[in-house]
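Hey forum,

I'm writing up a methods section and want to include a predicted complex as supplementary material. The small molecule is copper (II) ion. I've pasted the protein sequence and the SMILES. Can someone with a working setup run it? I'll credit the forum in the acknowledgements.
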Amino acid sequence: MQDMRRRDFLFAAVGSAGLLGASGLLDRASAYASILAEASAHVYTRRNVYCLTATSPEIMAYKKAIGLMRALPATNAVSWLAQANIHGAFGPPARMIANACQHNQTFFLSWHRMYVYFFERIVRKQFGTSSFALPYWGYAPAGRRDLPPMFRTPTAGNALYDGTRSAAINAGTPITASLVDSGAALAQTSFWNFTNTLNGTPHGAVHIACGGNMTQFATAGQDPIFWLHHCNIDRLWEVWLDSGGGRVDPTGDNTWMTTSFDFYDENGATVSLTGAQVVDIACQLRYQYENSLCGRRVVLDPDWWKHLTSLRLPAAAVTAKLDTLGRRPALPDSVLVAQSLAALRLGGKPVETTLPITDEGKARIAALERDPQGGARIDLVLDGVTVDGTPAAAYEIYIDLPAGAAADYRGPHFVGILNLFGASTRDAHQDKREAQIVPLTLAFLQLRAARLWSEDSVRVTFVPRGLTEGADPAKRLGAATPVTIGRVTVVVR
Ligand SMILES: [Cu+2]
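Reply by user p_vandermeer:
Happy to help. Structure tokens for the complex are below, copy them as they are.
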């Protein structure tokens, strides 16, 4: 905060021309340039972990910090356990901030941004170097999907190693491609559709792919890769904003802007932030992301969504609709379009359910198609998602996938990965787990334009995939069906 006040003061000083002009020593332009340099020196840069090695300064500092933080008791606010407990915990010490993580549709991104921000300050101030910034796990767009090498060396004293992870992940086996793909999320143009899609894919999918501590709310923060994973989720929020096309933060939403959350700062003091205080990472929080691929700058593809629409779609018509989608707030009422009558059990084979569309649902869908800018949206809502034990597979979700068609996550029928993060019946958070929302509006418009959307029913297909490359869920699971979805609903709101 001191840095920020100093910079604000400096900018204010530059703004008053008389002050500098009277000195006669500096002209305005060079004064401004030196102040900019000073200001940017205080913006910490989060780099892609794939561009770092085990001896990079931030990796060395992070490793050292973890060791020191682990030696502190859970009652110490800057200890490793206290920090992990803020997210989730089994029996945390009394009067400590705990089990506070927000995985619902409203605060998922902003809460985790604050959480990682204070954690990074703790590592920097207490134990790290003065320039320390957390790296991000750049599985997108780096093209790499393995756990970064320095996190998987099981040598004694490597604090980055977590033996609870799956053997395949710790062996460096790449995560299955659809699990780390952020295309479906980045293609969304409304903040709520973006945050809901991103929450499942790649966020929840990567938690599950790691295995062990990472699969449960109550233990996820104990795996050192957690913080790099969440840096990347936070970075994808920035990538999404930079993609333009009407993509903006929900600054008109009073609840999102003003609800405040508690954390511990680097001195162990309780601090709080609101959404309004974290919308500008460089100016308000003093960090930025290096969107680089180890020297080569990543140029963002403005046509992210096109890889989802490769199946003979009239691109221009769909684009025009996408550009304005979600700019108006959603309608307050929600109308049931279709609903499953029985729970689904998922195992090693694809499972399909066909839900008849109600008459009112048909009318609302027709209205949405006539006026896609009206703010209405279609959501797939999954209630009561649980998994017995640790997830052994991931499930790609498809809408109206034609019989016999190949399930391809790059096609327009794909809407995301079933989010099994925190769904274990063993997780401490089970009681507060909310319904899972998978936005369908974009898929609807794309499928409708291609005449691939059925009028009378919604067919939802769950296709199991191995968590890492080469893993076969059919072999792994046999006849077991450890995943339950209590109810599948489609609503327009
Ligand atoms: Cu997470």
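Some notes you might quote in the supplement: Residues 203, 207, 220, 230 surround copper (II) ion (CB under 6 Å). Residues 108-127 form the longest helix (20 residues).
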